[in-house]
Amino acid sequence: MRSSRSSAEGASNGALRAVQSTRDSSSIEPFDDVREPDATGQADAMHRVKGARAMNSGVNAAGGAQPDAAHEATRDSTQDAPNEPLSPDDPLAPLPFNPYKGNRGLTRAWHAMKNSLAGFRVAIREESAFRQELTLAAILIPCGLVVPVEPVSRVLLLGSVLLVLIVELLNSSVEAAIDRISLERHELSRRAKDLGSAAVMVALGMCVMTWGVIVGPLVVGWVRAWL
Q1: Rounded average pLDDT over 179-201
Q2: Contact predicate 171/127, CB 8 Å
Q3: What is the pLDDT of residues 87-115, one digit of tens each?
Q4: What are the sequence ranges of the domains in the chain?
Q5: CA-based torsion, 216, 219, 223, 225: positive or negative
Q6: Among residues 9, 29, 168, 175, which one is catalytic?
Q7: What's this model's pTM, rounded to 2 decimal places?
Q8: Can you spell out the DSSP letters for 22-80?
Q9: Does the annotation mark 168 as catalytic?
Q10: Region label for 81, one of left (φ > 0), alpha (ψ between -120 and 50) or beta (otherwise)
């Protein structure tokens, strides 16, 4: 009796197992992929996640919500990143420290005056053209002070003479800078010196024109009165 019951129980257990296996196999569709996802599946999953994040960010922007923590962290890291140092050729780069520019106030004015007097001494000693123009100025400036003209005309007479001296000093400084760079003959050096000489010639022409227009009629009247 026990053997028959055990055989009957074993047969019933076997039938139950067969039914369960049939149900499990019937729950799987024939076209379902039960294999592990490969690289393509992972890529598709990543694309789906990115699309979902983009949709969420669009919804947040439309609703006026703040960006998520990832975007805030990226933005903060970008803002907090140190700027690269500017190269010396960059126009925005700070100028190098000049120890000769440290004076301020009256001390600076005193040193500037001494340097200006030194420049006058060098121009008188080294530049023959400046000596000639300075001699001409020594004659014309007193004449401009005593000639009977209006104050505006007097200022024009004196200013035209001083303008010649100013342009001659600038021309001499340009020539000294070019000679400091190189003493060899070069087209650009010759052009720079010629341009400086042309500026002096224009200043001299302006001086002659000013004195001729203002003082010329007075001189003609004095000559006629004397004759």
Answers
A1: 92
A2: no
A3: 656 666 676 666 666 677 788 888 888 88
A4: 117-226
A5: positive
A6: 168
A7: 0.55
A8: HHHHHTS-TT---SPP-HHHHHHHHHHHHHHHHHHHHHHHHTTPPP-HHHHHHHHHHHH
A9: yes
A10: beta
Q: Closest by alpha carbon to 168, among 140, 141, 143, 202?
A: 202
- Token pair for residue 19? 């039914």
How far is residue 198 from each of residues 119, 120, 126, 168, 183, measured CA to CA in Å?
22, 22, 20, 10, 21
- Over the chain, what is the mean pLDDT? 74
- The angle formed by the CA atoms of residues 14, 18 and 23, to the nearest 5 degrees, is 150
- pLDDT-derived band at 178 (thresholds 50, 70, 90) equals very high
- 180 burial level (CB within 10 Å; 0-12, 13-18, 19+): exposed
Q: What is the CATH class of 117-226? A: mainly alpha
